[in-house]
Amino acid sequence: xxxxxxxxxxxxxxxxxxxxxxxxxxxxxxxxxxxxxxxxxxxxxxxxxxxxxxxxxxxxxxxxxxxxxxxxxxxxxxxxxxxxxxxxxxxxxxxxxxxxxxxxxxxxxxxxxxxxxxxxxxxxxxxxxxxxxxxxxxxxxxxxxxxxxxxxxxxxxxxxxxxxxxxxxxxxxxxxxxxxxxxxxxxxxxxxxxxxxxxxxxxxx
Length: 205
Fold this sequence. Notes:
By secondary structure, this protein is an alpha/beta fold.
């Protein structure tokens, strides 16, 4: 059973855009591709909302703006979280590749490698990666939610222990030897709460 993928091409070169669309149209795969294009990034957010692409092929060198700047803007928009953004470029330099990947692109495609055979593979790889990334994010979210619940319960238990120990000490309800143990318990309880808060804060960052 074939599937249809929506591909948004953002490129200010009509020749490159036409090449990409033709490659996808003529691709010998079971996947069908529905393509739309933009010649500038100014309206990309509105286009994503209306078209709902599975993958965005973003030119690195757009007129008036770099693809990396567009990636930075995308990161702040919820609509882009589950969209695979692949940068297409004629510039093959390691530092540029590192930049686009660190800004949220899931891959890059050298323009001179785009063919009917290679482009579907690039897109499939990008979609698999974004799917995996989102699964990891979802799993991390569930873990953090569980940790928060555990932290809340533990805080209540530890807080009750600490408060009870301090109450016994303040009311002189124990021997001097027992008081020393209770002070250690109260101190370690407070340290446990601080440790839990620090761990959860680091896990969220």
